[in-house]
# Entry
Amino acid sequence: MLYSKIFGVGLMTLATGLAAAASADEVFPVSASFSASSQDGAAIGHTKVPGDALLNLSQGRAPDAVVPSNEVLAFRVDCSSGEGSLIDFDTVGMTVLTTIANTERTDVVTGGTKGEFGIVLDFTNSGSPTFKIRDGLLMVVGKLSIGAGDCPVALKANATGIIDVTVTDNIGTDDVTAILTKGKFSTSSESIATLP
# Structure
């Protein structure tokens, strides 16, 4: 990990690719919701987007479909590097079904067991031809606690970004770009799994 001093405060910059070879990843359940704006011709539409919509689109389902009970939106974090990903996690099989977004950049300012962070998540292309996430970025900024092994836990943050999706309705299939605003993003302080 790279450390530098900024204004007398220890700033830990967690760079990609610095993870220890034998480290394990912790999986924390995520609660997320957003307001979204998109445009269709001259009309601008506004809607609420629950975290379940991300799960559904990543699996090729309609955004408002019922999520199977074994699937949970989660954040997988490598505690040694701080790198992580937003995932669709199978709580029965204890496996990652889909990686929804990967961290593109992570910065953390800590003091003891508390800190503040900023994460840029890069959405991955996942889903099916009729319902999918195509691309986008999500900026998540907020507060965290530092748990055992210097693992960032209990994230509580605001989120904003842009997401490109493909959706299908009774009229046809459309590629839509949505602006995500007023997002809320938080994780549990308890890991639900440890993955190699």
User: Anything to note?
Assistant: The first strand starts at residue 2 and ends at 6.
